Amino acid sequence: MTSHMLKSLGLLAGTAALALWPAAAMAAAMSEEQAAALLGKLEQLEREVADLRAQLGNVQQGQQASTSAIAATDAKITATEERLAQQKELKDPVKVAWKGAPELKAEGGWSFKPRGRILFDAGTVSAPDSIVDPGLGFANEARRIRLGVSGSMPGGFGYKLEADFTGGTVELTDALLSYEQGGLTITAGQHNPFQGLEELSSSNDTSFIERAGYTDAFGFERNIGLSAQYGVSDLLFQAGLFTDSIDALNDDENNSIGFDLRAVAMPKFGEVQTHFGASYHYRDLGDAIGTRRYRQRPAVHFTDTRFVDTGNITGAKSESSYGLEAAVIAGRFHAAGEGHWLTLNRTGPLADPSFFGGAIEVGLFLTDDTRGYKDGIFRGVKVSNPVGDGGLGAWQVNVRYDYLDLVDGGFVGGKQNAYQASLIWTPIDYVRFLLSYSRLDYSNAAILAAGSGDYGVDAFAGRFQISF
What are phi and psi of 211, to 5 degrees? Predict the structure, then answer.
């Protein structure tokens, strides 16, 4: 509109100038009536020019006023938004996320999350008919029912408290305070020593209903201690001093002490994750236990029958052991292998027996999923097509060979060769269904069948699991 007015104003002004320049000469040649008519037209043009100038001025003033009004309005909107944000923070200072359970986060580094798991097992163990044992046949149990909390605090501190409610008792599993700064994590309280990949990976994420046989046979468990972990690039170093577990605090002879060391290299080649680790463990038994016993169930926990069992070994002074571990994850495929060698050091001239356990497993997802891995341990699968979104969930098949040798130094606890297969369905994150079959071949077993320690046992089991 302004450009149009300027053009019109220029045109009228030019017309007036052209008209005024010959006005005097023309007036002499015109009659009085003609001169009066011409002057009237010139005056009309002058009035139109004045009107256009006034309109142009009003438009310019309006534009300036509009610009100022817009700027003032923007400032008011910004101030209002800031006040609304401040009021929202005052009204709701806590942020809520969902990770299987609500996780609350507040300013300054505070967070709080309830955690827990329910693992319910059922199945059957069948042995030769000549073995009469109440632990055989069908059985079921609540394998784990855990509840607890975890979170963070300002300054890099964290906490975790969890208890197990199975068996009609309450047993503390994790009870710890941690401090994290960069790649360093320091942990104090009851937690897992660094025994290896199989033991440190959560029972929520294992490929089979029970871990490999040597983990329970060699007494891997949580103890009270102070540990440090440092991760840099693809390397992880772990070390800790540990004593007995919380359950042993009421025992007057709870004075064992030991240390654990573990180193892990976890380079990744494109999409292929690899894992290589080694660990060493030493425990001075003190006066806690004058005897040690190594034994294991037949690939399930709902029976107390042990076909391999050294019985009580007297004169126990200390334990030393070391382990080697390796794993690979390549898309849907994974493989893992681990071995552990344990020596019981006894007093005086008594023989020091050495025992071995190890396992090799491979697994494949039938769906477009992969096994999780982080910080030197296996993690749970993140379902790519969950049932709730119209998918089939994650389906995985696994096979494992599990070996345990408890024969040495004059002690005949038996040897176990276990051939195992499992099928796992994870319909959504945090929920799993497992089926497993184990064929266990024993030699020199602690329980005889028709006078022989060489025979086979079959174990079938299923599990429903929810964790958060």
Answer: -70, 170
Q: List, for residues 186-243, the tens digit of each pLDDT value.
A: 999 999 999 999 999 999 999 999 999 999 999 999 999 999 999 999 999 999 999 9
* Phi (first) and psi of residue 393, to 5 degrees: 75, -170
Q: For residues 445 and 107, what is the distance between their CA atoms, to the nearest angstrom?
A: 59
Cβ atoms of residues 339 and 322 within 8 Å: no
User: Which residue is listed with tokens 């007093």?
Assistant: 347
Per-residue pLDDT tens for 345-354?
999 899 999 9
Q: How far is CA 66 from CA 52, 61, 72, 151, in A?
A: 21, 9, 10, 54
Beta bridge pairs of residue 269: 272
DSSP one-letter code for 389: G
Which of 102, 211, 133 shows the shortest CA–CA distance to 468?
A: 102
Bridging pattern class, strands 95-98 and 308-309: unpaired
DSSP state of 246: G
Nearest-CA neighbor of 468 among 172, 97, 101?
101
Number of alpha carbons in the 13 Å side-chain half-sphere of residue 57: 6
pLDDT for 57: 63
Q: Which residues of 281-308 are buried (b: 16+ CB within 10 A; e: fewer)?
A: bebbbbebbeebebbbbbbbbbbebbbb
Rounded Cα gap, residues 376 and 197, in angstroms: 7
Q: Give just the sign of the alpha carbon dihedral 278, 284, 289, 291.
A: positive
- The angle at the Cα of 172, spanning 171 to 173, to the nearest 5 degrees, equals 110
SS3 state of residue 43: helix
Domains and CATH numbers, the chain: 2-89 (no CATH), 115-148+163-467 (2.40.160.10)
pLDDT at 419 over 80: yes
Task: State whether the Cα torsion 72-73-78-83 is positive or negative.
Answer: positive
Q: What is the CA radius of gyration of the chain?
A: 41
Question: Is the separation of the CB atoms in 297 and 438 below 8 Å?
Answer: no
| The residue to which tokens 């309450």 are assigned | 170
User: Which segments of 184-295 does DSSP mark as H helices, in order?
Assistant: 197-200, 213-217
Which residues on neighbouring strands pair with residue 443, listed in sequence order?
415
Count CB-CB contacts under 10 A for residue 449.
Answer: 18
**pTM for the complete prediction?**
0.79
**Main-chain phi, psi angles of 295, to 5 degrees:** -160, 170
> Which residues lie closer than 8 Å to 407 by C-beta, 6 or more apart?
413, 414, 415, 444
| φ/ψ (deg, to 5) at 108 | 95, -5
